[in-house]
Design goal:
This protein is an alpha+beta fold. Helix content is 54%, strand content 16%. Strands 9-8-7-12-11-10 form a 6-stranded antiparallel beta sheet, sandwiched between helices. Strand 5 and strand 6 form a beta hairpin. 29% of the residues are buried. About 1% of the residues have low confidence. Keywords: Kinase, Membrane, Transferase, Transmembrane, Transmembrane helix.
């Protein structure tokens, strides 16, 4: 994939040697201006985890040559990596090896630690000759100074081991039409190697001298042996001296590397332990304030950050508010708590608010870099607190920003680094999960409390309504009794005198008067029957049923036989299933069957042939007819008292029958429902416990 000019490709350790060379050789150069021109910052160069882009490298070299006037400074900076002043990663890597040639054998492993722009490979072409090939990644366009700097690094590898400058021939270069940069490196043996060769030569000469003196002139044997021994001892001492010096240098570097490695291991262990402790806090605590307090304590004591704050979104989602901090005095905490972080679109955005909105971490190496971006009042406060550099990381859970974690450490001389940013960036989402879980748990507790209070209120209201309904039910029962009993006598008086008047004075009345009296008598009789049904309804609701096995098939046959007597000329087809036995009250079930079969008989009277059937299917009893039926959209009115679905002029009735059926069946542990089709008939289903039920 082609690389952008702004893709980070070059490690900051490359440019650290430039700055150290400038401080020694060009102390008057304005390093701050040089870095600013290249878009670099001091803390970024000192941070071994930071990487720079090709655009920054080009600007850096351009300005560097301009301020120093040295066209070859890139190669000199590469050589300077071998200087004792630059006790950096190159010396740590190189001095731990046997010799410079082994460095190039491992170049493909070493190079990625410093550059992502290319791939390096090496092959041996002679006893002390190596060919290096640098192939650039697609889209990478370096400048010639980087090629010179690379040659300087190659030379530094030999200087570290006491070698003379190697002979480096740039056989192929991308800046001269080549597809890769190819380097042929030849070198002479080191001084220690040459002394060792001289020592071995003297040993051989000493042996030859002894043999020659013994054979030709025994008198010269003593001086010859003495002279050979002196030369041998001299070369041996020099050889041991340089070997010891090189060994001590290598051991010193290895000890330094080991100490740094142990320090890094300890730092990584502390960080891993801190993350583990934060995970334990999250798994054992549910209160938000307790979680934040414990996390802040771990950041302060385990990871060594001097100060930090946690700001979270307020319930109205209008601003960020301080919810936790560490390393601040009570006065400083109060001053920080008064800082406002509004999230409205028109409000000024500081670093924390921008971090919250973009959900991207921010490393501020020098607070002067954000003077123009920060809110003036907030910047004055953090400046007064002595903050020099700080890190902001968004607290995010499930893609939603919940707040911001910010830390700083005024005690660090070099400020916070990219490694700190990576650590805080990894901890912030863990805090986000705990914050979200704590918020959800708090919401669940609040909702549970609201539901509990609502349930208690509902229970009180239900108790009140139940009491009111019980009172109304008692009053309704009293009204039923009053209507059924108290109105019966005056009603009989009304239609009884009508009958006497019709019998005694009928011959004196004209036809309209006789019809009026007949209507009065008929209405009184219907009213008395209605009162009887109301009394039955009241008794049904209050009577305690006596459950026993009841043969509904026998009841159905008896009721249908009685109905046939009332209309013997009607053509009927009756079907009654045998052996339908249920558990219920004999009197109530007789009333149920009378109502259901009576309705079937009544509403099928206009059919040419009445068809009525009774039976049971799968434990459900049914009464089916081919009468008028009904519209299912009005089925909810079937069991409502005094509700009739058909014209009263065509079919008589008082509208209490099905309501009584429902109440009677419910008192016996059953239920009833109906299905119908207008003009085609209806079927009423009901359930009751079987005969063997307890």
């Amino acid at each position: 994939m082609p690389q952008s000019p702004d893709t980070p490709l070059y490690n900051s350790r490359i440019f650290d040697s430039y700055l150290k060379l400038l401080r020694k050789k060009y102390p008057d150069v304005d390093i701050s201006g040089l870095l600013a021109h290249a878009g670099m910052k001091r803390h970024e160069v000192s941070d071994p985890g930071h990487w720079f882009s090709q655009r920054q490298v080009d600007l850096f070299h351009e300005k560097l040559v301009q301020v120093t006037g040295d066209q070859a400074i890139a190669r000199e900076a590469g050589r300077y990596s071998a200087s004792p002043d630059v006790l950096g990663p190159l010396r740590s890597f190189f001095l731990g090896m046997v010799g410079p040639e082994y460095i190039f054998y491992l170049i493909n492993r070493i190079a990625p630690r410093f550059t992502r722009s290319s791939r390096c490979s090496a092959r041996k072409t002679g006893p002390r000759e190596i060919e290096l090939t640098v192939a650039f990644n697609e889209g990478v366009r370096e400048n010639p100074s980087q090629c010179e700097n690379r040659i300087g690094f190659f030379e530094a590898a030999f200087l570290l081991f006491g070698h003379d400058f190697p002979e480096i021939v740039h056989t192929e270069c991308v800046f001269k039409g080549g597809t890769v940069c190819r380097y042929l490196i030849r070198w002479r043996p080191s001084l220690a190697s040459r002394l060792l060769l001289a020592q071995r030569t003297c040993s051989l000469l000493l042996l030859v001298a002894l043999l020659g003196a013994l054979y030709w002139s025994p008198t010269l044997m003593g001086p010859a042996v003495l002279l050979a021994l002196l030369f041998y001892l001299g070369f041996t001492m020099l050889s041991h001296h340089f070997e010891r010096k090189a060994l001590l240098s290598s051991l010193t570097s290895m000890r330094s590397s080991s100490e740094r490695l142990l320090s890094q291991v300890q730092e990584n262990f502390d960080r891993a332990l801190a993350v583990n402790e934060i995970g334990q806090v999250i798994s054992t605590r549910s209160e938000l304030d307790g979680i934040l307090s414990s996390v802040n304590h771990i950041l302060h004591t385990r990871l060594g950050y001097g100060r930090g704050i946690v700001v979270l979104l307020d319930p109205q989602h209008n601003t960020l508010v301080l919810r936790g901090c560490f390393g601040l005095s009570p006065e400083e905490e109060e001053r920080v708590r008064r800082i406002e972080f509004p999230l409205a679109s028109g409000a000024p955005r500081g670093v924390l608010v921008s971090c919250f909105h973009t959900q991207q971490p921010v490393l501020v190496g020098d607070i002067e870099d954000i003077r123009l971006q920060a809110v003036p009042e907030n910047f004055s406060l953090i400046h007064a607190l002595g903050v020099r550099s700080f890190i902001c990381a968004p607290i995010v859970c499930e893609g939603e920003a919940l707040g911001v974690l910010a830390v700083d450490d005024a005690s660090r001389a070099g400020g916070l680094l990219q490694s700190d940013l990576n650590l805080i960036q990894g901890i912030a989402p863990v805090i986000g999960v705990s914050v979200r879980n704590a918020m959800r748990l708090a919401n669940e507790r609040r909702l549970s409390d609201q539901l509990r209070r609502a349930s208690e209120h509902l229970e009180r209201r239900v108790a009140e309504r139940t009491s009111e309904l019980s009172q109304a039910y008692a009053e309704l029962e009293l009204l039923y009794d009053s209507v059924s009993h108290d109105l019966r006598t005056p009603l009989r008086v009304i239609y009884g005198y009508g009958e006497l008047l019709l019998e005694g004075y009928g011959d004196r009345l004209d036809e309209p008067a006789k019809e009026y009296l007949a209507s009065i008598i008929s209405g009184g009789e219907r009213m008395e029957r209605t009162l009887d049904r109301m009394l039955d309804f009241s008794e049904v609701k209050s009577a305690r049923p006596t459950l026993q096995p009841v043969d509904l098939s026998l009841l159905a046959r008896r009721i249908l036989a009685d109905l046939r007597i009332t209309d013997p000329k009607r053509e009927v087809s009756l079907e009654v299933e045998d052996g339908v036995v249920v558990t219920g009250d004999q009197r109530l079930l007789a009333s149920v069957m009378e109502n259901l079969l009576g309705n079937a008989w009544k509403y099928s009277a206009l059919k040419s042939c009445t068809r009525i059937s009774f039976g049971r299917n799968g434990g459900i009893c049914y009464v089916r007819d081919n009468g008028e039926g009904f519209d299912m959209t009005e089925s909810e009115k079937l069991f409502t008292p005094f509700q009739k679905l058909h014209d009263g002029s065509r079919f008589g009735g008082h509208g209490l029958g099905l309501s009584m059926v429902r109440h009677m069946l419910e008192r016996m542990g059953g239920r009833v429902w109906g299905e119908g089709v207008p003009g085609e008939g209806s079927t009423f289903y009901f359930t009751l416990p079987p005969a063997d039920a307890p």
